[in-house]
Amino acid sequence: SLTHSLTCSLTHSLTSSSPPPLPPSSTSIFFSSSVLGDVATTLFNEQLLAELFQPQDLYEYSAVFFMFDKIANSSVMKLNQNSMSKLFELMVMPVKMQTLLCTHAGELMGVVLNHLDGVRRILSGVADAQRLVNSAHQQFVKVYCGLSAAEWLLLRQTLLSFFQDRHMKILVCLSSKMQTESGRFVLPLSGRVPPGASVPGVITHFDEKNQPRSQVFATGTYQASGEPCSTGITGYRGTNLGENIFAQYKLKSASAETTTATAA
């Protein structure tokens, strides 16, 4: 699942309106669907998927970097070590932020499925990539759909251990106040509560006659849990986490500019 998420983050960053800090001679080729299709078909090929879905410990950070570095340099990208390091950090940080922002560990299911949906959209014209991504989707659902809450919690903790001490600053996150100047993410005091949980703000206790009494206190802006995650090839995933943060920022920026112009 980590490899799938990083692959999606790679395609998002390379097709964003703000290209990654890479050599000019390299960035011009990244927006070719054929190049991204080659990368995706390599990362979602059946042999690699079969290996990734075997029960195993999470790869070390250096091992995951080496895998993506090898794939990048086997394509027409041909990145030097410094450029690849920057690109990999740019891939890692959005996935770290999305993992942190999950309201409950099981929400990771929706995050990864949103990642796979994102790859499908970006590579909609590449038939081979679509077939392989659909196969990865089906295998992911088969393996992870039956996990218990405790297993999801352990999985999330393992992923956060992988991301620990990674604090690269991303313009999109800084501009939206989701990241501090030190590179650490800001967790919001609002949003949806986990399934089965009550919206915070009320304490109920019982007196000696067993009569309930409630006390209201101020909290952030919370809402009840919404529609559950759909595990089909299409459908709402129960969360917006895992969607393209670069595209979301572009839409917000355009909306802000329109509002400013109208007000003026």
What's the quick description here?
With 264 residues, the chain is mainly α. The chain contains eleven helices and four strands.
Describe this structure in words.
Helices cover 55% and strands 6% of the residues. The protein has helices at 2-14, 24-30, 33-43, 46-52, 61-73, 81-101, 108-122, 127-144, 149-163, 171-175, 245-263, and strands spanning 190-192, 202-206, 212-216, 221-223. The strands form two sheets. A two-stranded parallel ribbon has the order 1-4. A two-stranded antiparallel sheet has the order 2-3. It is globular and about 75 Å long. It is mainly alpha-helical. The chain is built from eleven helices and four strands. It starts with a helix and ends with a helix.
Measured between the Cα atoms of the first and last residue, the distance is 47 Å
Helix content: 40-55%
Per the principal axes of the C-alpha atoms, what is the gross shape? globular
Mean pLDDT: 81
Low-pLDDT parts are: 17-31, 253-264
User: In total, how many beta strands?
Assistant: 4
Would you list the SSEs in sequence order as H and E?
A: HHHHHHHHHHEEEEH
Radius of gyration: 21 Å
Strand content: 5-15%
Based on secondary structure, the structural category is mainly alpha
What is the strand arrangement across the widest sheet?
1-4
The tally of helices reads: 11
Q: What kind of sheet is the major sheet?
A: 2 strands, parallel
